[in-house]
Amino acid sequence: MYILVVFAKDGRGNEVDPPLEIYVRVEDVNDNEPVCEHEESVFEIQEDEPVGSLVGQLLARDDDQEGTMNSQLTFAFEPQTASAASSSFVIDEASGRIQSLRFLRRKEQQVYTFSVRVSDSGFSTVCKVVVKVIDVNNEMPLFEKNNYGNHTLTEDSPVGSTVLTLKATDADDPDSGSSLIEFHISAGNDGDVFKVETDGSGVGHLVVAKPLDFESSHTYDLQIDARNPEPLMKGLEYGGESTAVLSVCVTDVDEAPEFSLDILDVTVAEDITKGSVVFKVEAKDPEGKEISFKMDGDSQGWLELDAATGEIRTKEKLDREKLEAFELTVIAFETDNPEKSSERVVHVRLLDVNDNVPKLTETQTFICMQDIKPIVIKAQDGDSVPFSQPFTFAFVKKSPNWELRAIDGTTAEVRLKKKPIKEATIPLYIDILDSAGLGVTQLFEVKVCNCTELGHCYIPPQGQGFKPGLGTIIGILAGVLGVCIIVAVVAIKRSSKKSKKKGLNEEEERNAIM
């Protein structure tokens, strides 16, 4: 519609009348043809959908005046393709809605292509339509045969060995998950000894998944099902065609003895009495044959093995301080066929007992008269915690001239309180106890001497002199005895003339410098 406004004016431009509105309505004529929204309209429908299911709606438009006969559209199958479409689909002539006329099967036809003529009151256009039938899982896997017979394996067949190959097919679309096939052992697989390996293509390989054992089970009656990973269409169930059976027989072989434990760890106190049982290894022959035992690795010769029972006993005293842990190899073999054998490593660890006392690492030293410095003594114990450090140090008898003070768990400091007045060797008796209270009194000798400028004692250390034998001593004594008799007479006469007072004896001298 157009609106025109007309003005009436005189020669001077003045309005002589009010403006006049003129309405002009343009009447539509059918000058536009229908247009398809898509060059090709593609729809999908699952096979076996109920009759009357909506496939899709064809969309088209007309640019003539809306609501008039010029823009009103009608839809109909194009005659050239009507035969292909009309047997399976119907189209609503007013809305363009396409519905199914029957159950569609993908294996019969996967794609339907046809044309629809869209018309107004004067023009028409042809739109292309494609309907794809989508596969559903309405076909079950089928074994090539349902009984695979009997098969034999030796019990020593390695894990991963193939027993047989299974084959099954599925008629569903090969490009969909509905045709993939999985195999499941549904019965007879006690202990999960077997499994089926597959890539989904319909070929499966029955393989050994765990070691076989004739003595445990020698026959397996297996049932294997072929299944799709996707569920079957509603109303369908798997049948006997999707199941296969077979029998696997396991034959016996002469096997080596087997130990009851794979890992053997033994802990024993080092003070265990001689002849005691340390531990017992146990093994049996799968076929029930008589077995014997032998042992290697006892480098110290502490143990002995009973070949018949597997008992290991001590035959010598154990010593943890000499060897704390060691390994033994115990071999079990068939008595009549020693080549059939197996072995286990036994880890033996000795537990410590308090059978060692702390001992000084050094039992003598010296101090310089010119520069008295503290003495550090150190002890060590062959035992381990809690039978070793920290140690306790103490003088057997307190001395006014010496003091003893612990530094840490293994060392102590010995200090001379007074300056010595002469050179001497002083014995110190020290009690050293471990943390459990076990210990002994030990002698520690301190040599008091004059020292060089470098701090070295120049009193020669007392070495061990010549020790004469008994015969030599008797000879010397006999010779000396005669001389002594003569000297004694002279000595007695002279002694009466000397003063009976003496100086400090040796013991008093030692105390004086201490």
Automatic annotation (TrEMBL):
Transmembrane segments: 470-492
Entry-linked InterPro entries: Cadherin, Cadherin-like_dom, Cadherin-like_sf, Cadherin_CS
Coiled-coil regions listed: none
GO BP annotations listed: adherens junction organization; calcium-dependent cell-cell adhesion via plasma membrane cell adhesion molecules; cell migration; cell morphogenesis; cell-cell adhesion mediated by cadherin; cell-cell junction assembly; homophilic cell adhesion via plasma membrane adhesion molecules
UniProt membrane topology term: Single-pass type I membrane protein
Subcellular localization: Cell membrane
Domain Cadherin: 2-36, 37-143, 152-259, 260-360
One CC-aspect GO term: adherens junction
GO molecular function: beta-catenin binding; cadherin binding; calcium ion binding
Top-rank taxon, per record: Eukaryota
Keywords linked to the UniProt accession: Calcium, Cell adhesion, Cell membrane, Glycoprotein, Membrane, Metal-binding, Repeat, Signal, Transmembrane, Transmembrane helix
Name of the protein this chain belongs to: Cadherin 17, LI cadherin (Liver-intestine)
Organism: Nothobranchius kadleci
UniProt lineage: Eukaryota, Metazoa, Chordata, Craniata, Vertebrata
Gene name, Swiss-Prot/TrEMBL: CDH17
